[in-house]
Design a protein that fits this description.
It is a single chain. Helix content is 27%, strand content 26%. The structure holds flavin-adenine dinucleotide.
């Protein structure tokens, strides 16, 4: 059954987030030959429209307003509700990002739609669109179908392969004027706490440190390794609680959920709450001096040793591979 499916494109720091393209790929599967319409929301974001077409969108609707420069739940839900009312889609896909997690339930309620959140795979099977999502902190997976109403899903970053970029694709770009009013809050400025770098939730490689790193200074070798691998630095709550790094780096049940291609855990014991945020990584390498550490139970490769010896050695070897 051909469907019209809407996706929300996310722009951050002047660039489209990769999850915008992953949402388009998921939408293509749901559309089953129907139309994929990407929605760009913000202030002066139209320049990104063509990129969404190259990545598979058939059409792009742009909603620009000064009050949409920064995300607010009120502002974005007004914008999205307007485009949904106009387009009447049969499917909607957002990224399972901080923005998508905030906005999707609010809209689902307004649309009286069910919401399949945190999806890691979408397929057509037996005449249904089947979603796979992790449950019980990633210990099991469930498969879900939507039997009635709009098919509304959020996709976890880094799990659904985006379509090949194709500059020969063409599609229309339309502006939609929406009155954004009665906002209870307007964000005037966003001040970043941490240094710019690769976004943890979209990073292909993460080098994460735990209490075993022992100090803020101890994170330096991890940063060097991450830099050589083009990755990001993450942390356990143990490291954050000890003041070695900012809480924005925390991975786990009460931190960020990540699924990189490679996760290198350094001096992390592997508490269940930490595993909840990283156990679905494609390849896990654990470095710990305790051979009994729980992290080895989920690791594909385990290195029993002192991280301060092992990490610099890895950095040196990867540097050699790069030249
Ligand atoms: P530790 O458990 O102290 O482990 C340090 C490890 O470093 C040890 O295994 C040790 O052998 C190793 N080590 C020490 N020195 C070296 C060295 N030189 N070389 C190599 N290895 C070394 N935790 C999270 O991470 N994320 C969460 O989101 C989270 N949410 C939580 C929510 C709740 C409600 C609760 C109760 C807890 C939560 N926790 C979370 C905390 C979690 O239970 C653990 O306390 C925490 O993950 C431990 O951090 P750690 O592994 O860095 O520290």
């Amino acid at each position: 059954m051909a469907r019209k499916v809407l996706t929300l494109a996310e722009v951050r720091d002047g660039s489209l987030r990769n999850v915008s393209f992953e949402a388009i790929a998921a939408a293509k599967t749901i559309a089953e030959g129907g139309e994929v319409v990407s929605v760009l929301v913000g202030d002066q974001v139209q320049a990104h429209a063509n990129e969404l077409i190259y990545r598979g969108a058939d059409r792009v609707v742009v909603i620009e307003h000064p009050n949409l420069k920064f995300y607010t739940s009120d502002g974005y839900s007004q914008a999205l509700k307007a485009v949904i009312d106009k387009e009447q889609p049969e499917g909607i896909v957002f990224g399972h990002t901080a923005l998508g997690k905030d906005l999707s339930p609010k809209l689902a309620i307004k649309l009286d739609a069910g919401l399949v959140s945190d999806v890691i795979a979408v397929e057509e099977a037996g005449g249904n669109i089947v979603f796979t999502r992790p449950i019980y902190s990633g210990k099991a997976f469930e498969k879900k179908i939507v039997t009635d109403g709009i098919i509304f899903a959020t996709v976890r970053p880094n799990n659904i392969a985006p379509l090949e970029r194709d500059e020969s694709r063409s599609g229309s770009v339309e502006a939609l004027a929406v009155e954004i009013k009665d906002l209870r809050a307007i964000v005037k400025e966003v001040v970043r706490k941490t240094a710019e770098g690769v976004d943890l939730t979209e990073a292909k490689v993460i080098v994460a440190g735990g209490r075993g790193v022992k100090s803020a200074e101890g994170f330096k070798p991890l940063q060097e390794l991450a830099e050589v691998l083009g990755g990001a630095v993450g942390a356990s709550r143990g490291a954050c609680d000890a003041g070695y790094c900012d809480y924005s780096l925390q991975i786990g049940q009460t931190g960020k959920v990540v699924t990189p291609d490679l996760y290198i855990a350094c001096g992390i014991s592997g508490a269940i709450q930490h595993l909840a945020g990283m156990s679905n990584s494609k390849v896990i390498v654990a470095i710990n001096k305790d051979p009994e550490a729980n992290i080895f139970k989920v690791a594909d490769y385990g290195i029993v040793g002192d991280l301060f010896e092992v990490v610099p050695l890895l950095t040196e070897e990867f540097k050699k591979l790069k030249v």
